[in-house]
């Protein structure tokens, strides 16, 4: 593994990398939750029931999960820049197809392409940040990335509901697809991958033999820590995106007897919580060198308590109470992802970090 000295040459281009990746990641989260506020539009357009709607929306997550091993392998092999750029082009194509879809079948294909495309952003971002920034700053940078991403989730609530109501959901997704395409091209044309100083001066940083990808992959699969982290991530993040990404707005409309805009405003509290919690908890862990495993356990307990509140008291909670629960839930999930990836960064060799 490279040392911090070798890993943190003060190249100002790292901020170009950071800004570009953050802008791309903004739309990863936007797409993740965007269907929540246009549920009624999709039902009216395609004349479908909740089952068909759920399947269409879930294609994002199926393809997102399925392609992750490939994304990790390619990130380690060809670098983050090309993976983020080309995958984002696929996401842009899927977004445009979704807006053009004449039937629920084509909308499902478009949604699947979006999921496939945005799957190639987060893991390469982790790899890029691990190379361009010091390890002691890593959790903070991931927290900032999460904040920007969840700003996209904020825009995918009330602002998207307004745009869909004013201009129509199809033109809105055409525009988002176009912006995603522009960002993909910027990534490919104006950024570069980290180049180790050992390539030009071995005395600065002696080269370290790279692990072969197949043994590295098997090493990851054989790790007990990997499976523990994977199961925790599946349980925590899977429940969050299911709630926030599809059912939260409709759930709030039903339980609180409010309209779509009001429910979208409440749903917006979750990503606002992430925006606050992710960088704050990441900075706190880095600043005071806290044991990330212990912090992670505390966060999981808090997150479980928010779900208990919804399950046992959701029917009696008013708007303010639900907003408070959503805020704590968002802060917990932001801290969870930030601390989790900081822990992974500290325990995983850089040569197989993408895997």
How would you characterize this protein structure?
There is one protein chain. With 355 residues, the protein is mainly alpha-helical. The chain has a single domain (4-195, 213-352), classed as Growth Hormone, Chain: A (Up-down Bundle). It contains 17 helices and no strands. It is globular and about 55 Å long. Mean pLDDT is 83; it is low at 1-5 and 199-211.
Primary descriptors:
single chain; 355 residues; mainly alpha; Growth Hormone, Chain: A; 17 helices; disordered N terminus
The helicity comes to over 70%
CATH topology: the name is Growth Hormone, Chain: A
Order of helices and strands: HHHHHHHHHHHHHHHHH
Shape: globular
- Total count of domains: 1
Proportion of residues in extended strands: under 5%
Q: Kindly state the mean pLDDT as a whole number?
A: 83
By secondary-structure content and strand pairing, the structural class works out as mainly alpha
In the CATH classification, which architecture applies? Up-down Bundle
Largest sheet: none
CATH class: Mainly Alpha
How many helical elements?
A: 17
